[in-house]
Amino acid sequence: MRLDKFIVSTGKLSRSEAGRAARSGRILVDGIPEKKADRAIDPEKNDITLDGELLTYRKFTYILMNKPDGYISASDSGRETDPIVLTLLPDELQRIGLFPCGRLDKHTTGLILLTNNGALAHRLLSPRHHVAKRYYYTSKFSLTEEEIATLQEGVTLEDGYVTLPAVIEQQPGATEGYITLTEGKYHQIKRMLEAVHNKILTLERVTFGPLTLQGLPRRGDWRYLNDEEIRQLEAHGQSPLT
């Protein structure tokens, strides 16, 4: 791998900035200043430092975030005037091509996975893998036993689509509970509740496959996935991460 490409992959500098940094002596390879940013290095064997900081190579990056209300699940702002989730990350992580693995609505909070591994995202979102997503909800009215049974068996939405079976966890007479889906249609939970003449008031995703909000107590908190979580995602995708 070229030295400048490696530095770009860390998000620290652009390729042109890496070239200037090398020429000014800011980059060391195994403790020796390297003036040529296009030289070949082995990120698994060589120690690369920038301004004294040892840089870590990641072929792919996986970020777990507790999404706040009002943020858009997108990788760039486009025509949106609302902030996007990537702006909650440090600048270097905003430069490495991360994108949300699946979308949460603007006012839906909770767990969202950000990655630059397109193959992983495709597998996890593929309908044939049926990755479970669990949400905590509050509703305008409590659900009756008949309505819960309808939602769990599969309900017909206003456009005629029949949802896959869901799991509803709600105490009798309560206006809050949990709903677990294995698909992710547009505004699906909102539309499911509307199909039984109810209304979602708040919605928070609390799990995505094997991932939970553990270690992310506040909205806007984020962390890297650990090796075991990545291994579990691989199992859910049913094919190796590369």
Radius of gyration: 22 Å
The CATH architecture of the largest domain would be 2-Layer Sandwich
Q: Structural class of the secondary structure composition?
A: alpha+beta
> What fraction strand?
15-25%
In short:
With 242 residues, the chain is an alpha+beta fold. The chain has helices at 3-10, 15-23, 91-94, 118-125, 145-153, 188-195, 227-237; strands at residues 27-29, 32-33, 48-50, 53-54, 62-67, 99-100, 109-115, 133-139, 167-170, 176-181, 200-208, 211-212, 222-224.
How would you describe this structure in keywords?
242 residues; single chain; four-stranded antiparallel β-sheet; Alpha-Beta Plaits; 23% strand; 7 helices; alpha+beta; 13 strands; Structural Genomics Hypothetical 15.5 Kd Protein In mrcA-pckA Intergenic Region, Chain A
Structure description:
- With 242 residues, this protein is an alpha+beta fold.
- The protein folds into three domains: 3-54, RNA-binding S4 domain (Structural Genomics Hypothetical 15.5 Kd Protein In mrcA-pckA Intergenic Region, Chain A, Roll), CATH 3.10.290.10; 62-127 and 210-237, Alpha-Beta Plaits (2-Layer Sandwich), CATH 3.30.70; 132-208, Alpha-L RNA-binding motif (Alpha-Beta Plaits, 2-Layer Sandwich).
- Helix content is 24%, strand content 23%.
- The chain has helices at residues 3-10, 15-23, 91-94, 118-125, 145-153, 188-195, 227-237; strands spanning 27-29, 32-33, 48-50, 53-54, 62-67, 99-100, 109-115, 133-139, 167-170, 176-181, 200-208, 211-212, 222-224.
- It is elongated, with a radius of gyration of 22 Å.
- The two termini are 17 Å apart.
- The model has no long low-confidence stretch (mean pLDDT 92).
